[in-house]
Specification:
Length: 252
């Protein structure tokens, strides 16, 4: 992460990004339709990031062109109820989309090597084993036909403070602010260390991590949309053959 500038836009200006984003969203709509028609594979999109990193905004702006019938968004909060009576991956597997669908995870199973680690909820002897367990889980999904793509939305501490101030000053965003956000901010360095270990341990060929410079929301949206488009294009999705010989069908 030290090699990534959260404000980097790779030389792209805002106007060009908007035009390119629009094209990507149009293409994503087509690719989603192909994924749905083929119905042999699924896609999981993982969004992780520090508080105010832009997970909700990414879902709103990048997934806006998708057909909601083929998308399921799951927000992973503190486990409760049945979730606490199963292993930590149970609730995640329950949220994996069926073939032909796209599942979007707002936070994910990685909370169990992030917040659990930072706050000492379980000992190192427990959370340190989870990297390999997660890799095995994601490999199983990949081998079974579900592609996993993971985005770390990376903002710096100054940008987080600016977004917190915006939530306080804008009455339409007051509800998004919590005193707990400030408490978590005290653990910034510990979270960065945990994120770096997560990237080192769990970015694999079958389930890669992409670190997205996210200080500029418009660039974040473009980058995520482009990677999603590239990943779906690489799946070489095709319409299935018709179940009947259409040339022989006649209408009276």
């Amino acid at each position: 992460m030290a090699d990534v500038d959260p404000s980097d836009t790779h030389g792209i200006d805002k106007a060009s990004a908007a035009a390119h984003l629009s094209k990507n969203l149009d293409r994503l709509s087509v690719l989603q339709y192909l994924l749905y028609a083929e119905a042999r594979r699924g896609l999981v999109v993982v969004l992780q990031g520090i508080d105010a990193g832009g997970k909700d905004g990414t879902i709103q702006h990048v997934m806006s062109g998708l057909n909601p019938q083929g998308v399921r968004v799951t927000s992973f909060k503190v486990p409760e109820g049945a979730e606490k009576r199963h292993d930590y991956l149970w609730r995640v597997h329950c949220a994996v989309p069926e073939f032909g669908q796209i599942g979007i995870f707002n936070r994910s199973h990685y909370e169990d090597v992030l917040v659990v680690r930072v706050h000492g909820i379980v000992p190192k002897s427990v959370w340190s084993k989870r990297y390999a367990q997660i890799n095995d889980f994601e490999r199983m999904l990949s081998d079974s036909g579900t592609r996993v793509i993971k985005f770390l939305l990376y903002i710096d501490k100054e940008e987080q403070a600016r977004r917190f101030h915006e939530r306080i000053e804008d009455k339409t965003k007051n509800w998004k602010f919590s005193a707990a956000d400030l408490k978590e901010r005290e653990y910034w360095d510990q979270y960065i260390e945990a994120y770096q270990d997560m990237l080192r341990q769990c970015s694999t060929k079958c389930a890669p991590w992409y670190v997205i410079p996210a200080n500029r929301k418009w660039f974040r949206n473009l980058a995520v949309s482009q990677i999603l488009r590239d990943e779906l294009e690489a799946m070489s999705l095709k319409f299935p053959k018709p179940i009947a010989e259409l040339s022989e069908i006649k209408f009276e």
